[in-house]
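Recall the central idea of this unit: under ordinary conditions, the amino acid sequence of a chain determines the structure it adopts. In this exercise we apply that idea directly, starting from the sequence alone.
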Amino acid sequence: MTHLDKNINKEFVGVDIAKDKYDVCYNDGSRKIFSNNATGYKKFIKSLRKSDNFLVTMEPTGGYEQSLIFALQDAGHDVILASGFRVKNYANAMGYIAKNDKIDAQVIQEFSKEMYGKGKLEILMIKSANFRKIEQWLNRRAQVIKLLTAEKQKYEKCIEKVIKIHMKKSIAFHEKELKLIDGKIEKLSQKEELVKRAKKYQKIKGIGKVGANALVIYLPELDHYSNKVISALVGTAPYCRESGKYKGKSKTKGGRNKLRSILYMGVLAATSHNSIIKKFYDRLIRQGKHHNVAMIACMRKLLCILNAMERNNTEWDDNYGVANN
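Accordingly, the structure predicted from this sequence is:
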């Protein structure tokens, strides 16, 4: 199927989201503004008519887009979450100098129409209500860990006794909150299809309960895309930096940083206790690779194995990839 065939019967809609409202640019170039609340979602969905041919594209806005995405998906519409960096570059390339919310919605609409047909954009997978809850709790867990780490670092450097007492209370509070969050995640993870996949991932040495749940929630694309796409989604795919005679070091860029942070800790443990990952890591180190480079490579290898497990509907096997190690 060519990119032109892929666009047949598709109506592309661009959405630029703000805190209190969002601007919409329709396939025919018309524009509307809706409130960023439940009432606004209903009016917007009603304006799309009862059709499954609409493809709604928007940029991530730090969370203001989440409720709209869920409302659109529940109504049966496909949604794309496009990189703001790529949309901005597209606007510059197309000569858009002026910038406001209406223009941004138009740029997003044109960007999606141009890039989707070329296979450069992917539709967001639909998550169940339970998946969404766990994702929110995992997000909160990451926030608490960040706060806890910062408080502990400040505590070590603080020389004022009274302030240290307050910091100690804060640390204790966050540690207690972290335990409550982990309990909530474990309780929610006992429901629906999450259980089977999470238990499968926990059989991998280095992947604990949190890591298994994070893989299920943050990476539902496993089995649906190639290894290269999965690596790019997580942010472990290396991108070359070459021009003429210049050949720089390849670097990773973008991806799902929350999952990558959790996966990094799992792989760190795996380099000591997982025979496959340990052999691969040791070989890279012997070749002179830096620790971080080897870690990213190990993360990418683990993702490829996970993708194969889902694709072939198999369990973890310590003999996976032995020939390649």
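Residues 36 and 73 are 16 Å apart (CA to CA).
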